[in-house]
Amino acid sequence: GQQVMQIPQYQHVQEGEDFTTYCNSSTTLSNIQWYKQRPGGHPVFLIQLVKSGEVKKQKRLTFQFGEAKKNSSLHITATQTTDVGTYFCAGLGEYGNKLVFGAGTILRVKS
Amino acid sequence: GAGVSQSPRYKVTKRGQDVALRCDPISGHVSLYWYRQALGQGPEFLTYFNYEAQQDKSGLPNDRFSAERPEGSISTLTIQRTEQRDSAMYRCASSLVPLVRNEQFFGPGTRLTVL
User: How far is A44 from chain B, CA to nearest CA, in Å?
Assistant: First the structure.
């Protein structure tokens, strides 16, 4: 079945440094979604990417969807302490009807 | 406005007991999803509904797990004869339209502990 892998599992950065998490699917995706979960909280939707090679920006966050629609990345520029949390990607297979989540990347920011 | 609510927030039960977990989606949301989230992992799909119809239950681990949404609003996930391996966070999510390609709004979850 479809599998979604995320790396790294964990990253600890100094405030102001950049951060990137990568997501890879075993199968071609029709779309990919990103969620953020704060410590003790629940996943909150950030964005959805649908088109091959798509790039979307939300302030300091940049999301990319690979040309082959099998991988994606989230890049945060100049991290802040408010960026702390776990970032999940979730992929929908081309013929699927359910989201498959990655294990997430935990981001810690040291001020 | 009100988000997705789940009850109870915490449930401790003894092995062999049945439990019922409730999800109250955002009003007007057509689709409702159940996930299980282990510590340090992403949500794992269990089942989902469009209105009252269960569309996919392929993620339910075995026949001890069942879910219903009889009036197309509130949903209940029932686990019969609980086992220790059922201990996890159970999350519900809803979305406005009946397509998976839409933003899902998650509830706070029910933390189930089976002793």
Answer: 7
